[in-house]
Amino acid sequence: MRYHIRKKSAIKIGVAVLALIFILPFLISKLEGSSSESEALMKRMRKRKGVHHDTGIPVKNDVVQNVVENPMEAKDLKPVEPQRKFGPTAVLKPGVLGNFEPKEKPAKSGPGEGGQAVYTSMEEKLRADQSVREYGFNMVNSDKIAMDRAIPDTRLDECKYWQYPEDLPTASVILVFHNEGWSTLVRTVHSVIDTSPPHLLHEVVMVDDFSEKEHLKGKLEEYIKQFNGKVKLYRNKERLGLIGTRTRGAELSTGDVIVFLDAHCECNKNWLVPLLARIKYDRTIMAVPTIDGIDWDNFGYHPVYSTTHHRGIFEWGFLYKESQVPKQELDRRQHNSEPYRAPTHAGGLFAMDRKYFFEMGAYDPGLKIWGGENFELSFKLWQCGGSIEWVPCSRVGHIYRNHMPYGFGKVDVKIPVIQLNYMRVVAVWLDPEFQEYFYTREPGVRGYPIGDVSKQLQFKKEHNCKSFKWFMENVAYEVYEKFPPLPPNKAWGEFKLEGSNKCWDVMGQQVGGGPIGQSYCHHYGGNQLFRLNTKGQIGVGERCIKASGGSTLHLHFCDVQPTGPWSWDENTGVIREQHHDKCVEGMTDGKLLLQRCEPGKASQKWQINEIYTWKR
């Protein structure tokens, strides 16, 4: 018996030895190959020292860095399917101050402290008015305010008691600017640094979009040296516009998360951590801070909304809107200060995982200058697996300009650039039926060439992105209620008095203002492009025309149920208002009045001529 056991053991040992003889050389060669690969990788890494780890952009330690000649563009970065992994969540502990909650600072006194308004004296008025024309802000008042002024804590009280994960990603805050006023720009930089945990604020990346102002040259370069390399300044060698400059800022950044801010903001207490925490939880989330208002004239700081939550939506001409968050969205959460889903955002202030931003193709490189990029990124995120959340515990003040004080240089486009951008977004991300809603609202741009969108459509196909119908039904469902689909146009264009050169004109009026009238036909659309739809509404832009008091025509908000009293007889030229059974008459003094209908009367004969300004 023992003999048989020893015999079996000997056989097993022999087999094992033979296996080692044959397998050992193979293992050694593999290990050597692996070692060689590791050494080669280390060599490549040493060779790439000082080079950006994703895009190959040289990273210098100088405080002032010029944009490299040929950085890898977002369009050259091959999108890949993002890996979704959920991380730790924040925990609310009522009564226990949050782990990132900053200490209270001593109260300060001075102009604008506490977010108080600052006013202009009579002696300063001329200079103040000039600064508003030049910058869109009252820079005389801004210059009176400290660069590090204190602003009121506008957060919900609950926000003070959130416990966030300790190992949050680092942030690169990107500020792009062109001919920005000195104090509004520098106050933004101070605000970011003063309100962000130093170990989480990787850098502030300032990108100058070819500014001409003298104070933005050497003076700015010297000023930011006080931040010991935390603030980096890059300069475009030609005008790129907001969209292109933001993409460049993202390419030049080296933090885990990119946070875009406009260059005229003031960050509130503990604003950064809640954004980073959401991205730590899910890297496919775009986290959007709640935006407070800063007055362009007196710089008073105030919440835009009081206690209600709002989120970004749109109407069918793609004007950005905000509406109160539907109850079913709020009910997803346990606490009032928790983030909530939003269909879109205003575009200026948001945070994203940097790598995910490029995995999603960044901004469409065919979008020009400014406008529509917020919708492009929003639709792409939602339809292709990401999401957008507004974060109530992150508050950032933003100055809304009195007007846009500068142009965008020479642009070879025959329609407004923003409409061209909208058309690209519509062509890629909207289903055909929804595309018609846009062109019903903006008929004058139909047919204009939008450039090549094949790469964007290929991205959509490769990522199995959902339809726009899915997005509308599951994410942006309140748009149907606030802005119902537009009925088809029966006629649109210039409403021209037959035998004259006078057309209907908005005359610069707003809702609640004076009557619209007639002026000389300029053939550029805009304030002279009206639409009569099959339901009897006359629209211009997002507004509708109604007869107030039965005599004059005024701008009004359009009824949610798209019906109206207007009709046009193409044969007689009469435009009839059925509620009062009167017709529109063009008066010799330029007024438009509802008068008793008199078929054949010359001043009641109207032509409606379609106008495509880009075909002229």
Automatic annotation (TrEMBL):
Residues 489-609 form the Ricin B lectin domain. GO terms for molecular function: carbohydrate binding; metal ion binding; polypeptide N-acetylgalactosaminyltransferase activity. CDD domains: beta-trefoil_Ricin_GALNT7 (cd23437), pp-GalNAc-T (cd02510). Residues 97-116 are annotated as: Disordered. Pfam families: Glycos_transf_2 (PF00535), Ricin_B_lectin (PF00652). Its EC number is 2.4.1.-. It is an enzyme of class 2 (transferase). It is a single-pass type II membrane protein. One of its GO terms (cellular component) is Golgi membrane. Keywords: Disulfide bond, Glycoprotein, Glycosyltransferase, Golgi apparatus, Lectin, Manganese, Membrane, Metal-binding, Signal-anchor, Transferase, Transmembrane, Transmembrane helix. InterPro entries: GalNAc-T, Glyco_trans_2-like, Nucleotide-diphossugar_trans, Ricin_B-like_lectins, Ricin_B_lectin. Its cofactor is Mn(2+). PROSITE patterns: RICIN_B_LECTIN. PANTHER family: N-ACETYLGALACTOSAMINYLTRANSFERASE, N-ACETYLGALACTOSAMINYLTRANSFERASE 7. This is Polypeptide N-acetylgalactosaminyltransferase.
